[in-house]
């Protein structure tokens, strides 16, 4: 065992205590928030024909991973304060310091558990949360009707072909396998006036410079006021696959490799990627906030409990932790419109509060 850690028995004792409190606080937060969320969403879910209890359970199964991911750092913060305040109240911190342990050695098992939680959180976000986000957003887009087979399905999309507009209720699939459903094509003149409207049940990509092949089409000519039907019709040659692929990128619903490919594609199309790059870096810095929380909440565990300042110290620890989340969100917002570079937007709050927490700990206890 390295000198940075206390004895093996004490390390296991503190880490186990900390872990159990993280789980308890997280379960409490997720349960309460899930119940409140269902109160607001149950009416919308049951309003869709055929929906019942099964769909409510499906919604809960998709929403719980989001809540776990979002509130895990808060749970680590609250668990830190509860753990250290309890140790301080029972004079266990005094006993450990009397045995020659420094404040950093007392916090070492908590920091180690924070590293483990950060690793689990990163894997959970990549493997579970991204899929839940994609599926839930696709389900919400169809107003809780049948869940699309492809979670990447996008609803109510439209594309420009010069003055013409191609609209579709949904867009599913990737690349040349992209399928548009409930399609409407508006052909407009130079003044923007509609000269022809074409509707089709389904559209597939017909190839470069060819456009999109609509099936079961109905065309309405504005000048003649005549309606014609055709089994197939090709329209919108200017709407390329790149325009369809890059219409909207949701960083919360894409894994790191997927988001990397989306950013590269946007760059090749001379599209702005600042916000997505900040989100890409935040996929690393976000989970690492679990390592930061024991340091920010450590102020609650030191100092004399009998001095009557334990509650004030706990409040200070909570204030430092919540201040980090406020600054982190503000930095991401600044990075999204170019105020900060993506790297600074994602990592500056982490290192800023790392130095703040370390300074507070050293100045008060070491």
Automatic annotation (TrEMBL):
<feature type="transmembrane region" description="Helical">
    <location>
        <begin position="67"/>
        <end position="86"/>
    </location>
</feature>
<feature type="transmembrane region" description="Helical">
    <location>
        <begin position="12"/>
        <end position="36"/>
    </location>
</feature>
<keyword id="KW-1003">Cell membrane</keyword>
<dbReference type="GO" id="GO:0055085">
    <property type="term" value="P:transmembrane transport"/>
</dbReference>
<dbReference type="GO" id="GO:0043190">
    <property type="term" value="C:ATP-binding cassette (ABC) transporter complex"/>
</dbReference>
<dbReference type="InterPro" id="IPR005495">
    <property type="entry name" value="LptG/LptF_permease"/>
</dbReference>
<keyword id="KW-0472">Membrane</keyword>
<dbReference type="GO" id="GO:0015920">
    <property type="term" value="P:lipopolysaccharide transport"/>
</dbReference>
<feature type="transmembrane region" description="Helical">
    <location>
        <begin position="310"/>
        <end position="327"/>
    </location>
</feature>
<feature type="transmembrane region" description="Helical">
    <location>
        <begin position="339"/>
        <end position="357"/>
    </location>
</feature>
<keyword id="KW-1133">Transmembrane helix</keyword>
<protein>
    <submittedName>
        <fullName>LPS export ABC transporter permease LptG</fullName>
    </submittedName>
</protein>
<dbReference type="Pfam" id="PF03739">
    <property type="entry name" value="LptF_LptG"/>
</dbReference>
<dbReference type="InterPro" id="IPR030923">
    <property type="entry name" value="LptG"/>
</dbReference>
<feature type="transmembrane region" description="Helical">
    <location>
        <begin position="106"/>
        <end position="124"/>
    </location>
</feature>
<keyword id="KW-0812">Transmembrane</keyword>
